[in-house]
Structures
1.
Amino acid sequence: MITSNYHTHSTYCDGANTLEEMIEAAISKGFTEIGFSGHAPSSAYFSWESRIEKLNRYKAEVNMLKEKYADKIKIHLGLEMDYFSHIELAEGCDYTLGSVHTIYKDGKYLEIDHSKKIQIEDVNEHYNGDFYAYIDDYYTLMADVVAKTKCDIIGHFDLVTKFNEHGDLFDINDPRYINSMQKALNALIKTRIPFEINTGAISRGYRTTSYPEQSILECIGNAGIPFVINSDTHNVNTIDCNLTLEQERLDKLGYKYLTTLKDIKQYISSL
Ligand SMILES: [Zn+2]
Ligand SMILES: [Zn+2]
């Protein structure tokens, strides 16, 4: 059974519950560790300068709660860095996730995971309707996410597929999709940094499967890279969404995974 999660949001960003509510929920589910990964401010989606004060309060409160709950659960201070987040924002953090939520095109930041409607509009407006050109820009950033964010865990590698559950936007078996995705995957596999298995789109009803999809997961697992199984939770009800099912899947496939931050850090320092 998985009793940890390193991808947790709260009311400090776009989560529905406070840090303390998330901690209480984790304890009630028998968790032994919880890592908070509030969205790092990014030049892409808000004026990040105005968020620094809030970020500092977030860090201080997580650190305070670490002490308060020390005898009940291990709490870790993390950040979900976006490709366009400034690296120094992670100062004082125990770990970070590295994610791509936006691409930069025609002088504008395009949010790739906001809604299906916006994704389609952006592709029409900025890529002449060519989804594969849009996807290529996404994976070009993703290929560089470890170098750019210095993350400990690679977040939702194929997030660009979020609204494509039924394959109606593009075909993940199309050579153009595979070529763009594979280039990013090869680049990230070379870094040996752990990839997360992210069940967040399942709990939010967008997808029936986790990120990354099966064939990508197999490339990573076969390369001997360990996974971190995360729920990308935004409320108290989804902290443990499918985590143990994903663990069983990895066990069946014989792939490695890390469940404590100590192990994640130890693995990274061995690279
Ligand atoms: Zn994310
Ligand atoms: Zn997240």
2.
Amino acid sequence: MEKSLDVSIVGAGIGGLTAALTLKKSGHNPTIYEKSKLLSELGAGVQLSPNANRVLKYLGIMEDLKKEIFEPEAFQFLNYRTGRVLAEHSLKKLSTQTYGFPNYDIHRADLQKVLLSAIEKAEIKLLKGFEITDVGKEKEKPYIKANEKKIISDVVIGADGIHSVIRKKLWGKDQARYTKNVAWRMLVPIEKISSNFLKPNTTVWLGPKKHFVQYFVKGGSYLNCVCLVEQDDWMSEGWSEKGDIFELKDLFSEWHPEIQEIIESTDPDSLFKWGLHDRPPMKKWRRGKFSLLGDAAHPMLPFVAQGAAMAIEDGAVLASSLSSFDNIELGLDDYENKRKPRTTKAQNTASRNATIFHLSDFFAFFRNLVMKFFIKKIMDDFYKYDATSK
Ligand SMILES: Cc1cc2nc3c(=O)[nH]c(=O)nc-3n(C[C@H](O)[C@H](O)[C@H](O)COP(=O)(O)OP(=O)(O)OC[C@H]3O[C@@H](n4cnc5c(N)ncnc54)[C@H](O)[C@@H]3O)c2cc1C
């Protein structure tokens, strides 16, 4: 398409910011509407796999990103009690060689800082304090509404996360489901951890009904930890709440001494827990000249560490699809057709991992035997994909 489209993006998360950058790079005119007045990401980490880094490199922000990351040596699954290595995969040495791009761990606020700086450099409009509450159509053009103000554009993309208002307005109420998993998150300054047992890896400890993920962020000065625990109910009205350190200690009391040491070193005030929700894959994302992106379209459990990566890839494919067709609806359908099989696979893999990671006894024994083939297959499936050439 020769014409530059005015694209309204609802939500300035990792997905919305990346989509604005890819659209601008393809010659379109994106504007981002974000409900928060102050953009602040969670005090937590995110793993940026090679498939996500391919898009970030295409956007020309790799050098800025490199100042903020930690590059892990390897990915490891460990036994929760003994610390025995169940499976290991080299990342630093082999990631670029095998998948063309490195694997990084980063603090969310650092990734957001780099994306925001690129948004500013590209002179993309980002309007904060704009909570979109309604959508509609006027003279064949889609509009969104914030504070009674109607904003008309050529295309609207809902990148407004798992609670997406755009999704609800387009497709009706469909409640996200509680997955019976809670994520406890903490960020521990390295100097607080007295033992020097920590290895420069992305490590996942597997135990019955729980797993524990740890990796460095901020150049190695903090350890980011996520403790994933099965829990039948989620009582809180909200999606996150403060965690009780004594409850966490109790939950992991039978785990390896390294885990005990990390929990012991955690500032109780910095501990939060999330009830993890997801939704089954959607039948259709597009409605008229509206479509969805990132968690708004395909929320998933974090058990394959691909939610943000999928949102980043979505942006690259969306820009190229909209540029390849004169008709906006055909462009949005092309985007959806190219993305949905892959994001559905990520959603299903994450749900399946919820079972596999938390097996016990006999089943865990068999899982451990095949674990190394299992991670290689998952990495190949997700890391090789090139969203910039679709
Ligand atoms: C514990 C945990 C660990 C994870 N680890 C990883 C990982 O290692 N690697 C990975 O790739 N992924 C990971 N993920 C998944 C990843 O965090 C998400 O998939 C990703 O952040 C989704 O980005 P998004 O932009 O689609 O949505 P969001 O980040 O939710 O952004 C949505 C934005 O829209 C705004 N918004 C909402 N409603 C409105 C409205 N009505 N009007 C205007 N603005 C609105 C919100 O304020 C927000 O800024 C993890 C998730 C969890 C819970």
3.
Amino acid sequence: MGPKIRASAVERYFGTQSDRVHALGPLDLEIEQGEFVCIVGPSGCGKSTFLRMVAGLINPSAGTVEIDAKTDQPTAMVFQDYSIYPWKKVLDNVRFGLDLAGVPKKEGNERARSYLAKLGLADREKSYPATLSGGMKQRVAIARALAVEPEILLMDEPFAALDAQMRQILQEELLALWQADQRTVLFITHSLDEAILLGDRVLVMSSRPGRIIASKKVPFPRPRRGDVRNTAEFAALQGELWDLLRHEVEAHLADIGSK
Ligand SMILES: Nc1ncnc2c1ncn2[C@@H]1O[C@H](COP(=O)(O)OP(=O)(O)OP(=O)(O)O)[C@@H](O)[C@H]1O
Ligand SMILES: [Mg+2]
């Protein structure tokens, strides 16, 4: 069996000749079915751009991104900023993707409710987003992505806007959710701690144009819990990855400083 996602010699440019930006690449990457891969890299190195290519929202300027898809809509995305509709109630937000996919309303409601229950929001289905905390809104966004039961879950800094405690709780919830159905996940974060806790593998990207400079397997067994942080191996891996990443973050800072 081939990989679930294969990126070959992918590059992406933005803009036209005079203000052309080389955002990403060349980048080669294979992600296996069921693998949880975290991507870290300096700001502006092309992480979101790559995720949008996997989602089919934009095309590479060169190279290819292939997905071994079994369904018409293989991916679902969770963004940083709770991209849920303020004018829709929680249940309708979670059902949104199912409505688009033509799932009958009754079945859609059942599925949406079951994912709301998994995320601890069973009693909030009639609430409007404005009445929810940040953590609850992000849970709604995650429930909406999971409800379509995507082959590949794409998460772009999904916990970045949350406070530290809420972030830890949602990390543990995501670990448990992943354990239940072991979907392929591509997860962007600025936190090495989060990347090591969640991932089977952590990819470190260079400053723009982003290339993959390291791919580290995370050795901790699953099911995994937050207390894996308290081990010497966790700290050692974090230190090792930070040495790689720091160099790229400094390169990025020098780059923006020189403009
Ligand atoms: N639609 C666009 N038009 C022009 N330039 C773009 C566009 N989208 C992204 N870029 C540029 O491409 C580069 C990569 O952007 P991208 O958003 O992928 O970075 P990122 O790694 O996700 O950064 P961050 O960590 O800050 O989210 C940046 O220089 C950005 O300004
Ligand atoms: Mg981004």
